[in-house]
Amino acid sequence: MSLSRRTLLQRASAAAMAVLAGRLPARSQPRPALVRKPIPSSGEQIPVIGLGSSQTFNLAPGNPDYATGQQVLKLFRDLGGKVIDSAPTYQRSEIFIGESIQQLGIKDDLFISTKVNVVQAGKAAATAQMEESSRVYGRRTIDLMQVWNLGDSIRNLTDRFLAEHLEAVTEWKAAGRTRYIGITTSRDPQYADVEAAMNRYKLDFVQLDYSIGDRIPEQRLLPLAREKGIAVLVNRPFGSSSLFSRVRGRALPAWASEIDCTAWSQFFLKYIVSHPAVTCAIPATGDPAHLRENMEACRGRMPDAAFRRRMETYFDAQ
What we know:
Blueprint: H1 5-20, E1 36-38, E2 45-47, H2 66-78, E3 83-85, H3 93-103, E4 111-116, H4 123-137, E5 142-147, H5 158-174, E6 178-184, H6 191-200, E7 205-209, H7 221-228, E8 231-235, H8 242-247, H9 264-273, E9 280-281, H10 288-295, H11 305-316
Parallel strand pairs: 3-4, 4-5, 5-6, 6-7, 7-8, 8-9
Antiparallel strand pairs: 1-2
């Protein structure tokens, strides 16, 4: 039996009144889309929050946290995450990620970022390590291959490491084995070498440490990355948890709601990814709740330059 137009209107009106009265759930509003930024060398858009893995995914089968780690990886993908960064020397992290994303069937859904970090010079050593990473991830092509920390502690070999390892990753890019190449650092003493390399080599990415509590990269590295069209990945966005120590026991300022922040992690992450030169921050976590919280920094309103200064002033006073 068909309903009259009058009956349909009466029912629609009654349903609307029920919603207003709180008796029926209102239709939920669509969530804001993930904020993305382009990789300058290609224009490819990636979400501004990714996932690091240093000290979080050193997991082997039988470890009670193994299943939780896999849950984090799947949840990251399900929440729209793309960029996962690791390295062969992060204990078992790279192996865990590789075996997990293959078991979960999500290996092709992610943007895989790893590193060349053999402690010996030479293209052969670098190429062998890259081949092993490719095997671990079950992918012929790695999205981003980075030369790690410019040779790290062997300072007198920095130039040789960088030249030979960059030659290896550049050849891989030409052969279609990696889509992007870059360099990484995680501490101030290497910044001069990083700056020199950014000026000398054609790079797609630079990875560096940056946070509201460590703004040194703003002086030279971030402006240079923007000038050269180099994407920026940010590690240590929480300053190895030191930022949380600064604000422990303190509530977020009420005005943080103006940029849709409900947690300090989002406050810290939105500060980073709102910098015009920053492409993506990669906080590391093995906790599903922390991952959800971090990923919310990839949604909603972002601070402009004036709001960023307000955030700096507030944080510096803590």
